[in-house]
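Box S2. Input/output pair 1.
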Amino acid sequence: MKLARLLSSTSKRTFVLYPGLVALEQRLRRQPLHLAWAPLLPWGYLQYRLSGNYRTRKGGGGPGVAVPPDRIVDGGLYGYTRNPMYLGHLIFLTGLTGLTRSPLAAFLVAINLPWFDRHARQDEERLLHLFGADYATYRDRVPRWLPGLPGSTPR
């Protein structure tokens, strides 16, 4: 039962299960850590937590997407990226990969990138249905992932 709950929670997978598995692999491989990547772990985790708290405080709903917000949240990090919580997961996993140079961590990033992108697109469809033209305006103004990157235009 505990394992099923751990696997069903995206945040527990990213911030508990995956680092535990990578730490075990790291111990078995006895590879050095590349500490320059370490700051991405707290950055990703804090971005996830603080963005989620901000979204709940400003938009209502939550946690997660099971209970949608009452309002569009377009301030804070949501003014720069439509998915700062998902992006926090990816920053954390990228930091874990760089820190450990673990093939397992790299694999986890590779499978989670399309997973988060698919979920972001599904969330956007729900929000468009819920908020209509107001959400479309926000979507057209703020990129899904990162501002300023080639191919990261809104939509």
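Box S3. Input/output pair 2.
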Amino acid sequence: MNVDVHSHIVDRQYLDNLVSTLALATESTNDGKRLFRKDGSTVAWSRDDMFDIDRRFDDMDKKDMAVRILSLSAPNVYLWNGIDHVAAARHINDALAKLCRHYPDRRKPAVERYRSFARRTREPIWAKINLLRLPVFEHPMFPRNSAGLEGFELPLRLGLIFDTTLAATRLIYSGIFERYPIFLTSWRTRVARC
């Protein structure tokens, strides 16, 4: 069975809230994309067909994908503060749960990681992952401070790679790989140790 571990939930209310909260400019492209931009950089984007569940299932069938593991893409809910952060997380979790309940054989929710997942307080999580021999997927985020990355879509093209490198480096230096021989997969790289 083929499983797509890197697929995203696309939710109109989330995108609308993102645009209003961050005062994003919306720009349309010739190929039908809507870009949501801040300071000249794309923060998120969508296409109408991304909201079409039947079309997404057809796409899965063409690629021989039995199941997709869904998560929320960057910038996720980390750009909201306080109560708004909680509300944004609750909304997207509810939307994800509803979608997965409707299509339990084709959609599964991903468990979100903590941004500081190499801390000692996360040891019980890594121990359980190791015990169950579960794969771990690391999805990068935009850097919190994008100063110096203006233009050329550098937060996307360089910032995400930096975030992946930072995550892997923290795992290496924290000794996680030595204590727990887990598999870590990333959207661009695979770091594995058995």
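Caption for Box S3: The beta strands are 3-8, 25-28, 33-38, 41-47, 67-71, 107-109, 135-138, 183-186, 190-192. The chain has a mean pLDDT of 84.
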